[in-house]
Amino acid sequence: MSQEPYAQQVLSLIQSADLENTEHKLLTFFIEDAVDPTRAAKYISNRIELKGSNSKEQVLRSISHDWKRLLERCMCFVPVYLALPA
């Protein structure tokens, strides 16, 4: 998928971070699948710039954690009851 230069730059920054593979994928999808990939990239970039004493990896993990929590809240779980043999 062709990306704007700014989004591509932030994707490279994500790939260079020392993160778990699933964190890399989630953050990459956050940008690539966004309605506005440049805006999503700017969000991540701004969070990194405002990191304070946190490392780039800590900030990216925090974004990943926030994104996972949001996804969990938006998912609808339907309980499945299995009949156990008597």
Task: Jot down its keywords.
86 residues; mainly alpha; 4 helices; elongated
What do you see in this structure?
This protein is mainly alpha-helical and 86 residues long. The protein has one domain (5-74). The protein has helices spanning 5-16, 21-32, 37-49, 56-74. Helix 1 (5-16) packs antiparallel against helix 2 and helix 2 crosses helix 4 (56-74). The model has no long low-confidence stretch (mean pLDDT 87).
Care to give the gist of this entry?
With 86 residues, this protein is an all-alpha fold.
Number of domains: 1
Percent of residues in helices comes to 55-70%
Estimated structural class: mainly alpha
| Model regions low in confidence, pLDDT < 50 over at least 5 residues | none
Largest sheet: none
Termini separation (Å)? Answer: 54 Å
Q: Using only CA atoms, what is the Rg? A: 17 Å
Strand content: under 5%
Number of E-type strands: 0
Shape: elongated
The helix-strand sequence is: HHHH
Mean pLDDT: 87
Report the total helices: 4
Helices, strands, pairings?
Elements lengths: L4 H12 L4 H12 L4 H13 L6 H19 L12
Helix pairs in contact: 1-2, 1-3, 2-4
